[in-house]
Amino acid sequence: MTKNLIDTSTVLASLKKAVESKGAEYVYPKPGGACVYVSNGAPSCLVGHVVADLFPDKLEEVAQWDRDNEGDTDFYSLQDAFQFPITPEAHLILTTVQADQDMGVPWGEAVETAEGLL
Length: 118
Prior knowledge:
With about 120 residues, this protein is mostly helical.
C-alpha cells in the first residue's frame, strides 16, 4: 500500500502559518548558538513548526534526536532519520527554507524564495 505523500501546497501552508505566528521579518535566533527543530518542548525553527503542525506525534522524538545530535543538523539528516511522507518537491521547499533561515534570512523571505522554486 502506498502512503499518501504530503505535497508542496500543504507544506507551504504550514510554513506560512509559522511566518504569520512570528512575523515575516522574524529572524531565527539560534537558541544556544545552534539551530534546533524543537526547544523547550515547542517548535523552534521553520521546519520544527512544520513538524509540529503536520507530524505532531513526532515532535518529542525530533526533540530527542535534536539533543542527541547537538542541533545544527540539516533537513536531509532529519528526513533520513524520520522518513516523513513528503513529495520530493516538498523536500526541496523544506531544505531551502531551512538553509535560508540558518543563514539569517527573515522567515517571510525564506518562504517566498522557496515558493519561487516551484
